[in-house]
Amino acid sequence: MQVKNKFRKGEIVDMCKALQEWKKRDIQLGIEQGIEQFILDYLEEGFSKDRILSKLVKRFNLSDQQAADYFQKYTNEKP
Question: Can you give the pTM of this predicted structure?
């Protein structure tokens, strides 16, 4: 199904594809919110940074660098 996009004159939008992209984005947002809460909860419980990073890699199937990036993002840690 294709409909004209109201925001860009003459552009055609595949609604199925758009819905799939929105769903994918929303899932990613949910995962990131879960990661943020995971980090904050473990910090509150007194876990070390290294232990949290290790758990992020294991539980969320992240690379070491991705885990470190999320930790930095959600703790405002300086690089």
Answer: 0.74
